[in-house]
Amino acid sequence: xxxxxxxxxxxxxxxxxxxxxxxxxxxxxxxxxxxxxxxxxxxxxxxxxxxxxxxxxxxxxxxxxxxxxxxxxxxxxxxxxxxxxxxxxxxxxxxxxxxxxxxxxxxxxxxxxxxxxxxxxxxxxxxxxxxxxxxxxxxxxxxxxxxxxxxxxxxxxxxxxxxxxxxxxxxxxxxxxxxxxxxxxxxxxxxxxxxxxxxxxxxxxxxxxxxxxxxxxxxxxxxxxxxxxxxxxxxxxxxxxxxxxxxxxxxxxxxxxxxxxxxxxxxxxxxxxxxxxxxxxxxxxxxxxxxxxxxxxxxxxxxxxxxxxxxxxxxxxxxxxxxxxxxxxxxxxxxxxxxxxxxxxxxxxxxxxxxxxxxxxxxxxxxxxxxxxxxxxxxxxxxxxxxxxxxxxxxxxxxxxxxxxxxxxxxxxxxx
Length: 416
Description:
Largest sheet: 5 strands, mixed
CATH topology of the largest domain: D-Maltodextrin-Binding Protein, domain 2
Structural class: alpha/beta
Order of helices and strands: HHEHEEHHHEEHEHHHEHEHEHHHHH
Distance between the termini: 97 Å
CATH class of the largest domain: Alpha Beta
């Protein structure tokens, strides 16, 4: 009797096993069907609005291929049309790359309208306006709802470029440095020892080096020191070319008429194409060390979702944001675009790309940053543009330039 009962139970075991397998296979089939449909059949085209220089755009396809390797169902299109074109367009972008200046002011009244109206649930512009830290290393709205934007990389900072064919290395000691660049100077052949643009953005680096923006600083004294440093190089030692802005400096540098210059990071791709292996790149710390104290203004680039994106794409764009926030994507961004990564943890990793600055140089660039709020940056540049032309012509002395700079200026509004 017991054997008969055991036999009746035993035959149910394979039946249960078969049913279990069928159920598992059914679930796997449903999951596989979903994944197949999601990854291969349901293609999603995402338009990302960018407004960058041509050198940067040349790298974007490489970046797109990287993203689509991880997300084969997402087809990215980089759109470079002016933001105003999309205000009432049916083919509005799904996401946009913005700087902190864009977030606060907008490039124009139209641009500001787009930014204010289109950012998805972001109050970040108000937070950035007075913040002296536009980096926002972590999520922009941490603890305030879904991720609506991620920091991509640092940009708009100044670097020291030098011609290794003339200057194999930048001397590390003050006396050696000035002897070397003074020996190269030859007014007859229009050769100079150092190239620093006479524009307001470049002069900000002198103000940063003089610690003008420190809270307890004597503003008048610090600014006079900044003008003294710039004036001594141009008038005192005759080391820098006069009335020469960045395009002029680039031409002189390419023609080997100046061994090193200070220029924007956005010039790196152009200079690499012109000088090849002869191009050397350092942070401003290389000049601070030899007695020319400098700090560079900078900005960040952020990727934001836009309300204009159709509802069915919001989840896809959200995935892209989370992808770009990952350490691997941040590392790749730094390598492809040759920009300082937004994640501070990546400053401790060497780049696999030999043409990209290595860890120590990324750290040095980061340490040379001058932390300014977008509002302070804009107002300072506006005031400098009124004073610098007369100073560089030699019409006014350092103390007079400082006094004129500190005269009350009209208040700037975001819409102006």
